[in-house]
Amino acid sequence: MLITDDHMHLYKYKREKALEEFKKAGGTHVFLVTLLSKHYGIFPRKGDDFRQMFDAHIKLVEKANKIVKAYAVLGVHPAEITILGEKLGYKVAADIMKDALDIAGNYVEMGKAVAIKSGRPHYRVSEEVWRLSNEVMLHAFKVAKDVGCAVQLHTESFSRKSIEEIARIARKAGIKLYRVVKHFSPPAIDVFEEVGIFPSVIAMGDNVLKAAITGDRYTVETDYIDDPDRPGAVLGPKTVPKKVKELLKMGYSEDFVMKICKDNIEKIYGIDMD
Q1: Residue 74 belongs to what H/E stretch?
Q2: Cα 163 off chain centre by
Q3: How many C-beta atoms lie closer than 10 Å to residue 253's C-beta?
Q4: DSSP letter at 78?
Q5: Domains (range + CATH), the chain
Q6: What is the gyration radius of the CA atoms in the chain, in angstroms?
Q7: pTM (2 decimals)?
Q8: Rounded distance, CA 4 to CA 2, Å?
Q9: How many CA atoms within 13 Å lie on the side-chain side of 149?
Q10: 8 A C-beta contact, residue 119 and residue 154
Q11: Using one digit for the tens of pLDDT, what is the confidence trace for 13-35?
């Protein structure tokens, strides 16, 4: 049986040991996602500067694959718009982010990653920054459509209005909506299915069970950050295997688990997990 964490970070706390814990708990597959540029000790002044970050992440994923099956998700955290913009100007920051997303798309084409990351700030920003962030996200959708990959999104808190707006932007780019993944989603499976975007449900509390009660069109994640200043945040690496096994104890079948941990993953990312 496969158990997949759809969104995890490795930084400088447990690093590969986190995956050992994940594996020991029953985890088999993981999507490792890049963090902010500052976590890699860089301050990008051009899109090409993100290559250092992407290359470091790919090396980490290569090491991770000695423990479990790991996939690389490369991209630009939407908070970069304010981090870079405060020093370089927001329009310049947006252009840098778009160039970096182009590069991330090239890595996908080379087979080094399976998806890119984008989104828009989860905190209050000016109208200008919001507009530019939506432009960057639109660009990410266009890149993903062109290279045939999925996009994981970091965005503001869930609301039907927000995901409908994101879906409209995605349709404008021409990307299939099931290839748009809302990271850190609540268990509002019915709403996501109606809109078309795929939810990656944060395995907090009884979210995974609540999602299962509604349907099987979702994936599961911890958003583990691996930060020594926030040990265990957002959720520990054992959480997804634990929550998935709880579904089995509640009477859900292995076929149900394979749906959320394999079939949905294969559809979203266009990969073969066997």
Answers
A1: strand 69-75
A2: 16
A3: 10
A4: T
A5: 4-269 (3.20.20.140)
A6: 17
A7: 0.98
A8: 6
A9: 28
A10: yes
A11: 999 999 999 999 999 999 999 99
